[in-house]
Write a structure and sequence with these properties.
Elements lengths: L1 E4 L7 H12 L4 E8 L2 E10 L2 E6 L2 E5 L13 H8 L1 H10 L7 E5 L3 H5 L9 E5 L9 E4 L2 H14 L2 E6 L4 E8 L2 E9 L2 E3 L6 H15 L11 H9 L13 E3 L11 E5 L5 H12 L6 E8 L11 E7 L5 H4 L9 H13 L1
Helix pairs in contact: 1-10
């Protein structure tokens, strides 16, 4: 691997936030590029004490002193293997007493066993890869056996291990944890439009995209009409041509994430503190986890948590957080600053 300084190189949004947070604390930064074959990565780098850090695309790496051949391990490397295995992570959290969606694990080579699982669920089903990232290959709200088999086949094309879970419903929250506490909460609504009683879903999408263009928030890109969206609408009995009633919300996808067109609002006091406590306990119970984006579904986040009204979906070892810095209503959270402050505390 070749690593060299590149002061004019363009950083990704989260790396830019980390760079600005470090420099605001009088920590000099250097933009570098790592190259291995044809693969290039642009990093913001800085030192605290004797430890050099490399950051890009939500991954914070610890440079091993004297090792010029590689960048180094993820700061969350102690937890990364567990977190990457969604089934193992879910079992770990359940053993610690946290609520998680009920589900089953299947191997691709025994796909027939997975097909047979449909009748073991009494409500909507979620099918997803055991080691997926960014919502790729996640199929939610499945109630029809035909779509269940389609989802399994699609996941099996790219992933050897598959999770089949109950598809829980409620408010989707992303908690940003920076050891030892939650520092930000985002209410995430998968891509959606709200009816006006006259416009089709397609027209509402075009109108929302125009509004987003005017707003120009990095965390809210245009809604993309693709086959995944069409399939989700069909799966849930909707279509691009239908005209929703005034005030009726139509979801276009089952999975959130800014890259997939979700709406999000930064919230805090609206959420009962018991949910923050659960996230903090779950992260502290996961050895080696320094900071994380934690996804949770909650029936009603204004009331106290109990074992039956929330579900921890997953922990993330390399969480994106730029949406906390670009909130629609101005309630931003300096997550990058919290991360750099933690590093100062640990390594100074």
């Amino acid at each position: 691997m070749h690593i060299f300084e590149a002061p004019e190189a363009q950083l990704d949004p989260t790396a830019q936030h980390i760079k600005e947070a470090a420099e605001a604390r009088n920590i000099p930064t250097i933009t570098k590029i790592s190259q291995k074959g044809r693969v290039l990565h642009v990093w913001t780098t800085f030192k605290i004490g004797t430890q050099e850090f490399f950051y890009t695309n939500s991954a914070l790496k610890l440079r091993t002193e004297g090792d010029q051949e590689r960048v180094g391990p993820n700061i969350n490397h102690g937890a990364a293997l567990l977190i990457a295995d969604k089934h193992a992570a879910k079992e770990h959290l359940a053993e610690k007493g946290f609520s998680v969606p009920k589900g089953q694990f299947f191997r691709r080579r025994k796909i027939e066993q997975a097909y047979a699982a449909f009748d073991t669920f009494s409500g909507p089903i979620c099918v997803k890869p055991n080691n997926g990232l960014g919502g790729r290959g996640v199929f939610t709200s499945i109630t029809d056996e035909k779509w269940f088999k389609v989802a399994l086949d699609e996941v099996a094309k790219d992933f050897p291990n598959i999770l089949v879970e109950e598809s829980v419903s409620g408010e989707h929250l992303r908690f940003m944890y920076v050891e030892p506490k939650v520092v930000g909460i985002r209410n995430v609504r998968p891509a959606n439009v709200t009816g006006d009683g006259a416009s089709s879903v397609l027209d509402l999408i075009h109108a929302k995209n125009e509004a987003r263009k005017q707003l120009a928030l990095p965390s809210e890109p245009p809604l993309e009409i693709d086959q995944d969206m069409r399939d989700f609408l069909e799966r849930t009995g909707r279509s691009l041509s239908e005209v929703p009633a005034q005030g009726e919300r139509v979801f276009l996808r089952g999975v959130g994430g800014s890259a997939r067109g979700s709406d999000s609002d930064v919230i805090w006091e609206e959420v009962h503190p018991s949910y923050r406590e659960i996230v903090e306990q779950a992260c502290l119970a996961t050895p080696g986890l320094v900071f994380s984006g934690v996804d949770m579904v909650v029936e009603d986040y204004s009331v106290p948590a109990n074992p039956d009204n929330y579900w921890l979906l997953e922990l993330n070892a390399s969480p994106t957080f730029s949406f906390f810095h670009h909130s629609r209503d101005g309630r931003s959270v300096d997550v990058a600053g919290h991360i750099v402050d933690l590093l100062i505390k640990r390594y100074s």
